[in-house]
Structure formats: C-alpha cells, structure tokens
Amino acid sequence: MQIFNTFRINASALTAERFRMDVIASNLANAEVTRSGNGGPYLRREVIFEPDGEGGVRVSRVIEDRSTPTRKVFQPDHPDADENGLVEYPNVVVVNEIVDLMAALRAYEANVTAINVSKEMAKSALNIGG
Amino acid sequence: MSGFGLDRVFALLERGLDFAAQRQELLASNIANVETPGYKRRDLDFESLLKGLEEQGGELNLARTSSRHLPGYVAKSKEVFPVKEENITIRDDGSSIDVEREMVALLENGLYYQTLSKLTAGKFNLLRTVLKEVR
C-alpha cells in the first residue's frame, strides 16, 4: 500500500540521521584523543548520504576528514609529543560538530513531521466508511 | 440523476485522492533526502490531474440503449501520474531541496487529501441518509 511506503521512506531517513548523530557523538567523544589505532591523532569522520533507489535515503559511506588541519599544541612532557615538543590533537572543532548535530536533529524532526502528516492522511482515509 | 451516486463526483474524488497519495510519497522522498548531496526534488504535475478529467470513467461505461438508462461507473485501473524532476541547483552541494518549501508542500498535500476524504465520506453519508429514509 502506498501510504505505508511513505512511512518507510521517512523511516529510512530517521535511521540515516540517527547514524549521523552517532558519528558526530563519536567525533565529540574523541576530540582530545592524541593516539588512535593508526598511530596519529583521531581524525573526524563524516557521513555521506545517497538515495536508496526506493525513494528513501541511506548512508553510502563514512569518510575520514583529512582536509581540516589538526591542532598542534606545545606540551613537551606529553608522551605523544614529537622531537619539538608539539602534540598533534584531532581536527575536531567542537562548534562545527554541534552545528552538524543540530542540522541532523532538525532533519530528523522534519521526517517525524512528514510521518505524522502521512499518518493523519491514512486516518482520514479510514474514516471514509465510518 | 445518475445511478446510485456512483457517478463522476466519486470518480473525481478518487482521482484526487490517488494523486495526493502518490504526491505524498514523492514529498516524503524529498524530505528524506534533504541532506543528500546533488539530490534533485521530484514532484507530481498538478496539470496532469486536471488534464483528461473529461474522459474520466469513459473507458468502461455500461452499454446503454437509452439516454435514460443508468450510466454506471467502473473505476479505471490505478493511474500513475507523470513525475517531474526539478533539475536546478539551489544549494552549493548540488541539491535542489529547500526544506521549508518541502514542509509546506507536505502539509498542503496532507490537508488536500483530508479534504477529499471528508468530501467522499460526506457523499457516502448522503447515500446512507437516502437509504434510511426508504426503509
């Protein structure tokens, strides 16, 4: 039925936006991690969306942001300091992450509204007989 | 007076409801892809709803040997309205989705659908009233 397909489309966006919020949370949690699995500091991750071919949306991939520069702080006593006493901190900018988080939240809310509108449509169709 | 109220008005209401249900799916899709880079918004063409209203129900009418016979109405098989894609770019990520516009279109479409279903329900109520009176 068409109206249920509409629900499915917006639900796919809820899933995708939720995933994006998880990645942003992970960026914030790792904002001060100077040593990650690959040796250097943690690099912020970004979610890329694509249409899923059935009207909805899905996460196509998660990329590591290598264009934003990392922060270098002079801390000679730090175990991860280089020979000049500089420690490389992640390229996570907290303000940008919060703005991204708000954008994801608003997109999530827009989809919830869309689901509610579709729900009211379905309910009004059910009232035709009664 | 046409037969049993199953007339053009029902056909028109049905067509309008069909249109709004199909449009809702596209608008939902636009909102779902609000953050997808390069996505182009898709919508139904309202003109396609207006077009061809005259031939509504004209395909499978009952044979009539007198103009005073009941015309009857047989619903067409489910109609698919043409979809138009707006191949313009209004955002720097190549998308043509404007979330405010989509939300307004969505609400408008929802109310349109509810109006039509109220009208359909009202028409059934008319029939019910008539049937009660004869009983």
From TrEMBL, chain A:
Keywords: Bacterial flagellum, Cell projection, Cilium, Flagellum
Residues annotated as domain Flagellar basal body rod protein N-terminal: 8-34
PROSITE patterns: FLAGELLA_BB_ROD
Domain of life: Bacteria
Domain Flagellar basal-body/hook protein C-terminal: 84-128
Pfam families listed in its UniProt record: Flg_bb_rod (PF00460), Flg_bbr_C (PF06429)
Compartments where located: Bacterial flagellum basal body
PANTHER family per record: FLAGELLAR BASAL-BODY ROD PROTEIN FLGC, FLAGELLAR PROTEIN
Subunit structure: The basal body constitutes a major portion of the flagellar organelle and consists of four rings (L,P,S, and M) mounted on a central rod. The rod consists of about 26 subunits of FlgG in the distal portion, and FlgB, FlgC and FlgF are thought to build up the proximal portion of the rod with about 6 subunits each.
Family statement drawn from the similarity comment of this UniProt entry: Belongs to the flagella basal body rod proteins family.
Protein name, entry field: Flagellar basal-body rod protein FlgC
Organism (species): Thermatribacter velox
TrEMBL record, chain B:
All residue ranges annotated as the Flagellar basal body rod protein N-terminal domain in the record: 15-40
InterPro entries: Flag_bb_rod_N, Flagellar_basal_body_rod_CS, FlgB
A Pfam family recorded for this sequence: Flg_bb_rod
Domain of life the protein comes from: Bacteria
PROSITE patterns, per the entry: FLAGELLA_BB_ROD
Key words of the record: Bacterial flagellum, Cell projection, Cilium, Flagellum
Localisation: Bacterial flagellum basal body
Subunit structure: The basal body constitutes a major portion of the flagellar organelle and consists of a number of rings mounted on a central rod.
Role played: Structural component of flagellum, the bacterial motility apparatus. Part of the rod structure of flagellar basal body.
Similarity remark: Belongs to the flagella basal body rod proteins family.
Protein name (Swiss-Prot/TrEMBL): Flagellar basal body rod protein FlgB
Lineage per the UniProt record: Bacteria, Pseudomonadati, Atribacterota, Atribacteria, Atribacterales
